[in-house]
Amino acid sequence: MTPRLALLLLAAPAALDAQSAAGLTLSEAVETALRNYPAIRMADERTQAAAAAISLARTAYLPRVDALAQANRATRNNVFGMLLPQSVIPSMSGPVLGSDNLGTAWGSAIGVLATWEPFDFGLRQAGVEASIAERRHAEATRKRTEFEVAAATADAFLTLAAAEDTAQAAQAAVDRAEVTLRTAAALVTAELRPGADRSRAEAELAAARTLAIQARQAIEVARVTVAQFTGLETARISLAAPSLSQLPEPRPEPPPPIAANPIAAEQEAAVEREAARLHALERAWFPRFYLQGAAYARGAGAETNGVNLGGLNGLAPNTQDYALGFTVVFPAMEKRAAQARKAVQSANLRAEQARARQIAADLRAQWERAVASLDGATRIAGNTPTEVTAARAALDQARARYESGLGPIDPVAEAQRLLAQAEIDNALARLGVWRGLLAVATAAGDIRPFVAEVGR
Predict the structure, then answer these.
(1) pTM of the complete model
(2) For the chain, is the Cβ count within 10 Å smaller at the N or the C terminus?
(3) What is the CATH number of domain 20-58+128-276+338-454?
(4) pLDDT one-digit tens code per residue, 204-224
């Protein structure tokens, strides 16, 4: 099995089909996604195909051996003259008989031809190097795919955690609205408050329940996304990430080397692949030298004077020959075509080099944005607890005034909404810091430290 972004070191290889009641951890989710997501299997197969292509390129060093066996029943008329190279009219050997006889005789042939290039000015080695570069690119693509799947799975995991925290805050708002409704109903029944208070409390409860329903809907949608990456059943996905309930400690992050990012590494491999292809094309317009050897035997059912021997004569090859030779082939008129192909490939190489520079600039900008977002999320997370404390105090005061008959129900309703929003903001702010850490790790091209920290 191929390496999986080194995240195999973070998770046990045990199957998650027997997932414990403790829930799904982030490391388990990432490992399961790396094992099950189809895009990774596709990248694996392409890597295997590229590896097989290297073996194919190396077969060019082997001699070529062609064998032939033939038997025919044919006429034996032969004429003097030449035919241009073609593949329609069969070749004829033997003397010109000067006759036009449609009588037939047996003919047979068996032989073998071996051809080998003793040297090729580096063409075959360039082909092998191009195949090796193609495999390196396929491996880099697989690593980039694994990295992106792991990062997307971690993001889906955090999204589900945020949805669950939002649902808890929404349910708490429902519980507070129910208490307010019971209080208002009791005061209205005792004729201490107008009936409009009960209606206002019922409206606030309905609004809180709508918020809770929306939060549960967000949980289901986020759970489907996690299931999409992990391949697990949606109904069985529950999270086990106690560390996400804590606010992580901020720490300075030095800028990462761009080349370490799998996206940049893949593009660098693409540049090397195009350079190897160009080198192979530069070796193409050279003479080809072939050392050849042939051995064959033929049989004919007629004599050179035209006499037909009859019977089965000619079915057995009974005349042997052999030959050794050296052939040089040079496509003299292919120079302009070869130059055009090299110009095309040179442009492809320059395009990939420009793309590598663009990716490097994009990754630097992504890193800076991630750091800025993390800094802002950290500041927000430091402020939201104050928001929650103040909103809770405001609700307690509004309730006390309402229950004692010193104030209307409107401040209670507004305070409940304020507290619900503050609790949601606090939960999302904490997870916003974790999401910021993930964004920084993603921009750095290595989410292993983040997965390890969440798993503590």
Answers:
(1) 0.81
(2) N
(3) 1.20.1600.10
(4) 889 999 999 999 999 999 999
